[in-house]
Amino acid sequence: MEFRKSSSYTVSIVLFIFFSSSRAASHYSCDGPLLSALPLASFESSSHAFDSQAPHFAKLTRRDGGGGWSPKLTDRYPWLQVDLRDRMEVTAVATQGRHGSADWVSGYMLLFSDTGRVWKQYRQEDNVGRFVGNVDADGVVHHKLPHPIRTRFLRFIPLEWNSSGWVGLRAEVYGCTYKSYVADFDGRSSLLYRFNQKSMSTAKDVISLRFKSRQAEGVLLHGEGQRGDYITLELHRGKLALHLNLDDIRVRTSGAREAVTLGSLLDDQHWHSVLIERFNKQVNFTLDRHTQHFRTRGGGDTLEVDYELSFGGIPLPGKPGTFLRRNFHGCMENLYYNGVNIIDLAKRRKPQMYSVGNVTFSCSGPQLVAATFLSSSSSFLSLPAPPPTLEGFSVRLQFRTWNADGLLLSGRLAQEPQRLVLQISSGRLHLTHQTTALKTSEVSTGQRVNDGLWHSVSLSTRGMQITMTLDNEPSSTIQLQDQLESGSGFFFGGCPLSQDDGDCTNPTMAFQGCMRLILINNQPIDFILVQRGRLGTYHQLQFDICGIRDRCLPNFCEHGGRCSQSWSSFQCDCTGTGYSGATCHNSIYEASCEAYRLIGSSSGYFSIDPDGSGPLGPMQVYCNMTEQKVWTVVLHNTTNAVKVQGSTPERPHVMQINYSASPDQLHALVASSDQCQQEVVYQCRKSRLFNTWDGTPLSWWLDRSGEKRTYWGGYLPGVQQCSCSLEENCMDMNYFCNCDADKDTWVNDTGILSYKDHLPVREITIGDTHRPGSEAVYNIGPLRCYGDRSLWNAASFYQESSYLHFPTLQSTLSVDISFYFKTGAPSGVFLENLGLKDFIRVELSSPSTVTFSFDVGDGPVILAVKSPVSLNDRQWHWVQAERSVKEASLQVDQLPLRFLETPADGHLHLKLNSQLFVGGSASRQQGFLGCVRALRVNGAHLDLDERAKLTPGVSSGCPGHCSNSASLCHNRGRCIEQSSGYVCDCTHSAYTGPSCKDEVSVSFERGSSVTYAFRDSFLVMRDSSSQASSSSSTESRESVAFSLVTTQSPAMLLTISTFSQQYVAIILARNGSLQIWYQLHEEGKPDVLTPTPSNLADGRLHRVRIHREAKDVYVQVDQESKKYTLSSDMELNSVRSLTLGKVTGTDALDEKVGAAGSRGFVGCFSSVQYNHVAPLKVALLNPASSLVTVRGNLVESNCGALSVSTSNSLSDHVEEPDRANEQDGGVTQHDSAVIGGVVTAVVFSSLCVLAAITRFLYQHRQAQRTASLQEKETQRRLEAAYHAELHMHSSTLHMRDSLREYYI
């Protein structure tokens, strides 16, 4: 089946009209008061303080009696219950306090039930379960329910009340009567609706029903046809699954059935609404207001069902009452199939209906009362144990939970000090029999019993063994030495916090979930008696309700993140998605190749994400950074030239161009680029492009929208001409294209397509190669774009009352905002968007503090990041603010991330209705003075430059020399504005000089070393603060780069050590080969990497780069690249120091590493960089720094530059003798011809030998040159692959041009 997002799903007009008519609701009034006419007996409560405050005085606006209901002061869990006498449709509620008193309820919970048992909490929008109550005794607070309730019983649960008074409540409920047609299926019955003809074939269907189930499995609806069509609606593991196929022979032959699923926990004994709408292959599948749109599989557009539809099960043909699959156990109401009321027909015993088994027309099944354990630390239920049977004692119960750990049962046995403990541990069920403090017996069973489904477990003793049984799995037993007897009672779910005698101890945490059907020694436990205090004791429990929620439905993990949950929260696994954050919202890739160059990357394959956190995923491109412009290259499937012959206008040659990115991704790339182009190489012989009598083109291409285009390379859109016409150099000026001259020789109409709104080319059609001698050859080049329109898109605000306005923020679940700013003002509002109560704002609240504040309905939230230096320094600073359903965060430059978790049951949607103000606020106060650039909201670029052109007090762009910092400062250098020019800050670069291009080289003598001590961990682990959310651990990342010249081996090059006995060592082995040692586990063996067997101690310059991402290590030695996988992804915790050269105190190192460390290093180091630190430069330029310790003699050198120049001069020197030899050979041959008759035979022989040697040397030189070219090409391919892997997971926050400086 083909799935589509709801936001982008388009339904035809016919489908819309058909479905709209089927969904049309009758416009009747359903807001009448329902409580005012009820008798006194309809009101109940947990207790009442006095007779004058009895529950029947709780009618709205009533002042008789005590003016309302109030419970006893000793009532721990007060509630007020109303019986509406019949099922009603409730649309609103209203509350008051108790008249003339200080008693009122300021917050409450609303429960509903059909029977007065098995309650369910009503949740408003965003799953908020708390209703806002009163602030005084007589004011009325009215709540219109977002979706009506169809119920008979309502219960008000006070949560908060006046702190100076007590609970006081008067209430009213609004709605109307509700009528329905109900059928009850007992798990062995079904209804069959038989057609008037042999089969029913429909192009459109509407099926609607409501159901409530007592089981997690069961078929609600089924129909099938002989040609392979079928429709099945069933419950499976508590979820609703729809199987639908329209004449798909593949499904019929394979037997595989794919399903579309909705919902979960649907076996909660409460009503759920289902609507299935189908028109041809398009289907809307709705469950409780959540809709999934999809297209069915199969070759047909109609659903053909033979004979009948069955409801409640799939009976076996010819055997009534026998079912192929588990049938439905529960109730259905208002069951309609294409307008036919199925239950009404069955109730009136119409001939087209056939009943299998016992189907009744009322819903009165047994109610399974549950208890909810609310706290993972303090919930418990203590119950006495009835006398055991002769066979021994037994305990049975059912439970459901999301938590992987929790105590189910603990009890002391009659034989002191023996005890039994039943618990969930890591998703498995564990039973422990403790005989003494040191002696235990254990068994375990089950897998992932924390799946949210009901599970049954029983413990029983018989003879000399304890038996544990889970669901239908085989039993597990513990053998005993003596027959056991139960003690006086058991603790369920947890232990009291005040338990000091050791009777009960929570092994890990208390149980958080639901329990029901507890039986002790075959005696069922009545939870209502427990609730009323007549049986056992309890704490932090809710009775007659199972409060479990599926927090992964809907799935708030974005971009394909996988959701997992506990009882109170959910987590997102973003592995492999290309996104990070608490909800997988933030892209880990840069938005463009231009952005990759700004962080110091070189040419290679990269993943870019032009829309950032938007719906489009990352795309792989090639970034060509060798030119002044950074080109983004997108490849496609047609890379070689295509030869075309035999095509006619009626049967043309058609080639589809499939790119390595989707059309939407390509559109985003083109839109965000300054310019794009695509070369079309077209050569022809007797093959015309146009030149027909009626002007119809013979060849054309389709643009990205599928529109036919007839202009060719280099010309303007809309004109049927080629580039030669524009350049006025066509071979025949009577035609606008060379090919239209129809010559019998090869001609060329190659050109560049550069109108980017039409790019890329999606298809090419050639239609005139059928004549004798006619043919064409074409080649479509890759899409090439340069520039990033958003990166330097800026606006300058020079009036405090000025601002730019944009449309209201639309993404209400997750909002992310990022931008750069520079200012000299002490404060100002960057951005603001308001709603009636909700708002979002980012501002510079003080010269050194950026503040992110918002309100989604739970009260204002403020996050602030304070910088140790002023932010109004007229330098660029970077800000990223994000608010999701999981957490809010604020990042400024490279300062530590500030985050705050959102309330687990708080509001989700940010409801805004004003325009988005940039550079100011709606009040036109506290406006921002300065520059803002690269503003992105939810991944979308806001065009500040264009909007500023139309706004007073704002100018487009931002003056300053650093706007093109990418070409001014190199090697991670940062451009800093000056009053008259700029300077490059090379603090985080291993290079120096005006543009950070001069290498720093140092010669080491024997025994010399440089040790750099780290004192600020977040500068070492560059991403730990900027990307890690509160719920996920930091990925381990290290980057090391250096150059070396040496003739010594073995040798210690570089050592990184931590306070936790971890280390990374880079050495030269005895044979001169490079070895990299990773010791990440203190007790484990180190990982040893040998990237190349070549001898690096050869006196030549070698460059080494090492980059680690978790377990993956990418190593480049000179031009050779390799990837390795470590045994662990553990990060380096608390890096202590980095040492170049000799290492002392090698006890923690491996023997081979220690030996190399004692030898040290003799030679030259150049351009040493570890993450953001350049230790060699610090040691050379600031030797007095407390961070650096130098031992031995260090001499500044230029070995890096000398080695490069020397190798160049040597290669030049090699080539010149070759050319001289060639010239000399020619002269020798000429002279031989002139004086050949004079010279002697000896001279002639010598010349022949010399000629043979020259020819041999020439051929050998050519072979070397060919091999060198092949080797360079291989190296280029390896380097491209290395860069593709190296940057595949690079962070969006990693080494931007706005990084805060770390001054030595």
From TrEMBL:
UniProt-listed PROSITE patterns: EGF_3, FA58C_1, FA58C_2, FA58C_3, FIBRINOGEN_C_2, LAM_G_DOMAIN
GO CC field: membrane
Disulphide bridges, residue numbers: 931-958
Compositional bias ranges of the Basic and acidic residues kind: 1212-1222
Compartment(s) of residence: Membrane
SUPFAM superfamilies, per the entry: Concanavalin A-like lectins/glucanases (SSF49899), EGF/Laminin (SSF57196), Fibrinogen C-terminal domain-like (SSF56496), Galactose-binding domain-like (SSF49785)
Signal peptide: 1-24
Region of interest (Disordered), ranges: 1204-1228
Record domain Fibrinogen C-terminal: where: 584-636
Sorted UniProt keywords: Disulfide bond, EGF-like domain, Membrane, Repeat, Signal, Transmembrane, Transmembrane helix
Similarity comment: Belongs to the neurexin family.
Protein name: Contactin-associated protein-like 5
Gene that specifies this protein: cntnap5a
